[in-house]
Amino acid sequence: MKRRKVATRKLRAARIVSGLLAAVTAFGVGSAHARKKKPAGPPPDLPGHVAYLARQLYGLDIEDAKPITDQIQKLVISHMNAWMVNRSPNIVEVRHELDRVFAKLQYPAVAISSSFRASWKNAELIGAGYTLAWSDIWRVNTLVIYENQNGQSREVATTNFVPRADQHYAVIQPSAAGDFRLLVYGFELGKSHPSLTAVLYSFDGTKLEQQWKAGGLFDGKITVNGDTIVIRYLNEDEFIRATQQGHLPPRHEKLYKITPQGVQLESEHDIPYQ
C-alpha cells in the first residue's frame, strides 16, 4: 500500500513538472514570436495612410501633434499637386478630391475641405484648403494656391492661416500694384463663444504675404460686401462682468474700407447685444 502511495505521488510530481516545462516552452516561443512580429504599417492607399496617421493624433495637443499633421500635409499636397497638374477643376471638383483623400478618417478625427477660384491677370488662381480636427478644440488648416493656365495647374503658394481655426475665403479687389488679394477668416473654438480671426493676404505671383489682421475677437461675426468689411464682436471681460450681474453688454462694431492700398478703419461704435 505504501509503495502505491509513493508511486502515485511521484507520478503527480512528474506530471506537474512536465506541465511547467510545457508552459515555459510555450511562453518562450510566444515571446520570441512577439519580438519578431513587426507593427503594422500604414495602408498602401492614400486615404488609408492619412487615416492611419490621424489616429495617432488622438489625445495630443496641437504642438505635440505637429510632426504628424506635417506628415499629413505633405501627403495631401503631394497628391493634390499630381492631381491638379493636367486639370482646370472647378471648386466643387477640388473639394470632392480633398474629401476623397480624407474619406477614411474615423471620429473624433474629421476634415472640412474648402476652395475658391478667381481670375487674376492672364491666369486663374485655384485655392485648395482643408481643416483637420481631432478634438473639439484641436484643429489645423492648410491652404494651397495653384495657378492655372492652358489646362495646366501648378502650386504657387502655401499657408497655414492660424492654428485652431477653420477657414473661409473672400476674394478682394487687386491692390494698387495689381497683386491678388484674398481675405481668409475662421473661428476658433474652446470658449463659451467662438473667436474670430481674419487675415488679408496679398499674392504678387511669387510670394504670399499678410497685409492686415484682426484676431481673437470673442463671439466675432464678419460680413464682407464688395469693398466693405463689417466686424462685430464682444469684449470678453465685459461679457463676463455683465452676465455675472444679470445683463448683456453691447457689441462693438468696426467698419473697414478695402482700398487699393490696404484696409482702412472707417468707423467704430457700439450696438445693442443681438
Can you describe this structure in just a few lines?
With 274 residues, this protein is of the alpha+beta class.
Give structural notes.
The chain is an alpha+beta fold. It folds into 3 domains: 1-35; 43-135, no CATH class; 161-274, no CATH class. It has 5 helices and 11 strands, in the order H-H-H-H-E-E-E-E-E-E-E-E-E-H-E-E. The strands form 2 sheets. Strands 5-6-7-8-9-10-11 form a 7-stranded antiparallel beta sheet. The protein has a 4-stranded antiparallel beta sheet with strand order 1-2-3-4, with helices on one face. A hairpin with a 2-residue loop joins strand 1 and strand 2 (123-133). The mean pLDDT is 89.
Q: What percent strand? A: 35-45%
Portion of residues within helices:
25-40%
The rough form would be described as flat
Return the structural class: alpha+beta
H/E series, N to C?
HHHHEEEEEEEEEHEE
How many DSSP-defined strands? 11
- Mean pLDDT across every amino acid position: 89
Sheet with the most strands? 7 strands, antiparallel
Strand order in the sheet with the most strands: 5-6-7-8-9-10-11
Rounded to the nearest angstrom, the distance between the terminal CA atoms is 100 Å
Give the domain tally.
Answer: 3
Helix count from the secondary structure assignment: 5
Radius of gyration: 30 Å
Low-confidence stretches: none
